[in-house]
Design a protein that fits this description.
10 strands; elongated; alpha/beta; receptor; 390 residues; 13 helices; Four Helix Bundle (Hemerythrin (Met), subunit A); EC 3.6.5.4
Length: 390
């Protein structure tokens, strides 16, 4: 046998054997199927998936529990204010406390054993310091002197009756004190509220809306005081409490356009009344007063203005009268709203302001509560002054 051939055969066989060790590998066992992700319940009761192991690359995104959607705040509860009828009577005690000094002082003087010239002068001074006005005070004193002289005797009841009659004669007027808020064929009634800063004008607008809603009327408010952003916010708060929509624009917008849009909204909604709150205009600034006249003219392009209510602070006295005169020159004032009457003994301003402007006091503010605005009733007012002074 040829040993060379034999050696070659052995080499080839060995090569095949050792080569198979490296070339032929055993099959890797298949990985078991992944178990579905375990679910857990978080504190909010929401079911979420556990995240995959961190070492496994290419895993799918982790499912994160959605944040709970916050509930919408509940709508403000609509209030139902008391009706206007009888409001002044209900507030009589408060009015009597504030005006007690006037009534008590007058009754005490008139009940003196001797009514000489000095006493009558003191009575007149008391009336003047109560803002009745010089002319009205003189008339009251002259009338009382005549009646006391004719009467002769002066019992407490007679003195009170005489004083009551004189005060009523000065306060009463043939003019209608009702605020004209009933809608007409062309649309809603329109009430403009005017006055200088600090008199309570925007607050009066909101309180008047409550009076009308309490009487069953539907109301739209116009925030035409665009010089003061807080005024629109304040009016929106008043409106939300009684369900009255408020038409407003950004600070600095044209007040006349706000007023016009408010009337348009009231007409479209079929509202009974639109109340337009105007800026607290300083009566010394002619330009602003002219703009107030513009607001009225723009409204009247769409519908008549039924009321222009001038809000006066009862504590301002003669300064309030000067304000009233300037406003009366710009717009046709139809009525007075006298605020802060609960904090002063100078209720005689009612007499003087009616004489000066020739328009009646229609509403009075007797406190800071939301329902402290009341239709003015002369008899209830005088009885409140004299009632606690007996």
């Amino acid at each position: 046998m040829d040993y060379t051939i034999f050696a070659v055969i052995i080499f080839v066989v060995a090569l095949l054997v050792f080569g198979g060790v490296f070339l032929i590998r055993p099959r890797r066992p298949e990985a078991p199927p992944k178990a579905p992700p375990q679910e857990r319940e978080d504190g909010a009761g929401t079911t979420t998936a556990e995240p995959e192991a961190a070492e496994e690359q290419g895993a799918g995104p982790v499912v994160v529990a959605p944040e709970p959607v916050p509930e919408a705040p509940p709508a403000p509860e609509i209030e139902m204010p008391p009706p206007s009828a009888g409001r002044l009577v209900r507030l009589r005690a408060r009015l009597a406390r504030s005006q007690n000094a006037l009534g008590k002082g007058l009754l005490s003087l008139l009940s003196a054993d001797r009514l000489d010239d000095s006493t009558w002068e003191e009575i007149e001074d008391t009336l003047i310091t109560s803002d009745v006005g010089v002319t009205a005070a003189t008339q009251i004193v002259e009338s009382l002197r005549t009646k006391v002289k004719v009467l002769g005797s002066r019992t407490p009841e007679e003195v009170r009756g005489l004083l009551r009659a004189e005060l009523l004669a000065q306060i009463e007027t043939d003019q209608d004190r009702a605020v004209r808020t009933e809608p007409h064929a062309g649309g809603p009634a329109v009430v403009m509220v005017v006055g200088v800063n600090g008199t309570g004008k925007t607050t009066t607008t909101g309180k008047l809306a409550r009076v009308l809603v309490g009487d069953g009327r539907s109301v739209v408010l116009g925030a035409a005081d665009t010089f003061r952003a807080a005024a629109a916010e304040q009016l929106a708060t008043w409106g939300s409490r009684v369900g009255a929509p408020v038409v407003r624009k950004d600070e600095g917008a044209d007040p006349a356009s706000v007023a016009f849009d408010a009337v348009s909204r009231g007409t479209a909604d079929g509202a009974d009344t639109v109340i337009v709150d105007t800026a607290g205009r300083l009566h010394t600034k002619t330009g602003l007063m002219d703009e107030l006249g513009k607001v009225k003219r723009v409204i009247e392009k769409k519908t008549p203005v039924n009321e222009v209510l001038l809000v006066l602070d009862a504590t301002t006295g003669q300064n309030g009268l000067r304000q009233a005169r300037v406003f009366a020159e710009v717009v046709n004032i139809t009525g007075i709203v006298l605020t802060k009457l609960d904090g002063t003994a100078k209720g005689g301003i009612i007499v003087q302001v009616q004489r000066e402007l020739g328009v009646p006091v229609k509403l009075v503010g007797l406190g800071e509560g939301p329902d402290d605005l009341a239709p003015f009733d002369p008899e209830a007012f005088v009885d409140a002054i004299l009632g606690d002074a007996e």
